Amino acid sequence: MSDLTKLTIAAARDGLAAGDFSSRELTAAHITAMEAAEPLNAFITKTPEKAVEAATDSDTRRGKGEAGKMDGIPIAIKDLYCTKDVLTTAASHILDGFTPKYESTVTANLWAEGAVMLGKANLDEFAMGSSNETSFYGNVANPWRREGDNRMLVPGGSSGGSASSVASFSAMGATGTDTGGSIRQPASFTGIVGMKPTYGRCSRWGVVAFASSLDQAGPMTRTVRDSAIMLEAMAGFDPKDSTSVDLTVPNFEAALTGDIRGMKIGIPNEYRLDGINPEINALWEKGIDWMKSAGAEIVDISLPHTKYALPAYYIIAPAEASSNLARYDGVKYGLRVEGEDLNDMYASTRAEGFGAEVKRRLLIGTYALSAGYYDAYYLKAQKVRTKISDDFKEAFKQVDAILTPTAPSAAFAYGEKGDDPLEMYLNDVFTVPASLAGLPGISVPAGLSEEGLPLGLQILAKPFDEETVFKAAGVLEEAAAFAATPADWWRG
User: Fold this and answer.
1) What CATH number is given to the structural domain containing 36?
2) Which of 170, 205, 305, 337 has the fewest CB within 10 Å, making it most exposed?
3) Residue 436 is part of which domain span?
4) What is the pLDDT of residue 422?
5) Contact assessment for residue 364 and residue 314, using Cβ atoms and an 8 Å cutoff
């Protein structure tokens, strides 16, 4: 593997600025790495020609002194983001052949800052999944394997292709989306950094919707600094998105001071689950010690409604999905399966176009919104969501940030949990509460399991206080000194 693919975004930015190499050279190295990593199935659509063209343009801009924040940096784009004239599928059969004539705001922001697109990354269908086992285009493989075990592991989901591309050094960074943990959990499973910004920090316009009150775009990178650089390029107010918040985007990288002395870090009692994996608990305790050694004050806090977060989420998210996915009917775009009449065409198209997990969630959501059940389920879940948000508001009166595990386990093998939807949903137990409250959160790789697999720790902070998230995460990253990389078995 070329040394260029091992660079961080920050190091590549500096190398490009110094003239040590060109964007064309950097991009060519990553195109080669992307092709070599084909067994991972991390990409649905590869765009090497577009990448070379963008890299050439970047080199021209740099020669004129007009380089942007991400100029010349090759990245992967989760195939949930609409990209103009490039196939966009949401990993679903029902969007076969859909090539948008417009660009999502987040990707448009990235291109305006000079980023280079390598391709569209695989994901769970319509972002519904925690393991990347629901894609119409096949499973994504985690670059990591258990020691002495050749079974394929899941990369987490739904942003599994994005995570796998970054962890395998096929891309320097990738966009993800996080609805209930779909950036943070795969980041934990693959040993990378995954950042979910505050709901409203990044525009959702042009991102295929799953659950509109929860979905949020964010970066997936190999370091906290890279995450800060990429988020600054992605974020910004967008009048086309009614949930986009009109706030100035800070210099997130400047927040990485390495100094958290006097910062109060909350440890929620309710996250100490019965039967929690001892490895996860031990890593959490180690993380607490690291923060304490860096001068932070550790404060025990309570988030009493945490235990209701997963049930509330799995009512709200499917309900919103059932509304959002009603637009896929075979009439305007994507797959069409002809029927005897219009209703039969709708039914046939959806039956063939949607996968099993999407159908399961649509049925749950439609049931929760149906007459006689709306008040009992959806409305009650929204009230619980408010209680969860209020818990965090109270906690942040005492603390500046919260430290928790990211996921309840390391990556698992394909098929280990696929037959039990409830066990699969439990993968989001530590990430969902922050999603319901719209908080910013980041997963930082902090250690290895006994089987040699990455484990992550999560930092949460107040809404629109990503700077505190990055500051604390930078200190956590330095203390953990996570330097392990997967053995590149996919090369044969």
Assistant:
1) 3.90.1300.10
2) 337
3) 3-258+413-491
4) 65
5) yes
